Amino acid sequence: MIELFTDGACRGNPGPGGWGALLRKGDRVRELHGGEAETTNNRMEMTAVIEGLSALKKPSRVHITTDSQYVMKGVTEWMPNWKKRRWRTAAGQPVKNTDLWQKLDALLSGHEVTWEWVKGHSGHPENERVDALANLGIDELES
After folding, report:
1. pLDDT of residue 91
2. Among the options 45, 51, 74, 137, which is catalytic?
3. 138/143 Cα distance (integer angstroms)
4. CB 49 within 8 A of CB 104
5. DSSP-assigned letter for residue 57
6. Nearest-angstrom CA–CA distance, 46 and 94
7. Exposure pattern of 7-16 as b/e (b: 16+ CB <10 Å)?
8. Does 45 participate in catalysis according to the annotation?
9. Which of 38, 77, 121, 142 is catalytic?
10. 92 catalytic, yes or no?
11. Catalytic status, residue 27
12. Which end of the chain is flanked by fewer CB atoms within 10 Å, N or C?
């Protein structure tokens, strides 16, 4: 079992954004982060999961912990219907961030994934760490 903790951040929405991911398997921990000059918080939340899953070398059992209801519900509740409707909402509008949803869908198909939501900024150690990594991603853009 691999644990993946993810977070995204944005200074302004849209604005400069960052993402952070922490992968843990047993005693081994790998931290990842990055940023984009002009983006949204939701795109950074999604990018954190995409980058974390992209770092895996082989199909795995992955437990993803996120503070993003948007990402978790998007994958577990909304995406099946979006796909049936050719990436359109129930109202017939194009799904926002389709490029990232499709990338995430493809990455998830190679793994056995479970999800857990945690409240952001509530003292959860790994969530606090990936929040710091996401903000580091923004800091590095601005330096």
Report:
1. 95
2. 45
3. 9
4. yes
5. S
6. 17
7. bbbbbeeeeb
8. yes
9. 121
10. no
11. no
12. C
Q: Starting from the edge strand earliest in sequence, which strands make up the sheet with 112-117, in order? A: 28-39, 15-25, 2-10, 61-66, 112-117
User: Which member of 33, 67, 74, 137 is catalytic?
Assistant: 67
Calpha distance 62→53 (Å, rounded)? 9
Selection from 3, 26, 4, 6 nearest residue 132 by Cα: 6
Measured between alpha carbons, how far is 17 from 109 in angstroms, rounded to an integer? 27
Is residue 7 annotated as a catalytic residue, yes or no?
yes
Q: Where are the alpha helices (DSSP H) in the chain?
A: 41-54, 69-73, 79-84, 98-108, 125-142
Q: Band of the pLDDT at 142, cuts 50, 70, 90?
A: confident
Query: Hey, how many other C-beta atoms are within 10 angstroms of the C-beta on 18?
Result: 29
Answering whether pTM is above 0.85, one says yes
* Cα–Cα dist 132/9, whole Å: 9
Cα angle, residue 5 at apex, residues 103 and 115 outer, rounded to 5°: 70
Mean pLDDT, to the nearest integer, of 108-126?
95
Whether 111 sits among the annotated catalytic residues: the reply is no
CA distance 78 to 90: 10
Q: Which two tokens stand for residue 48?
A: 């954190």
121: annotated active-site residue: yes
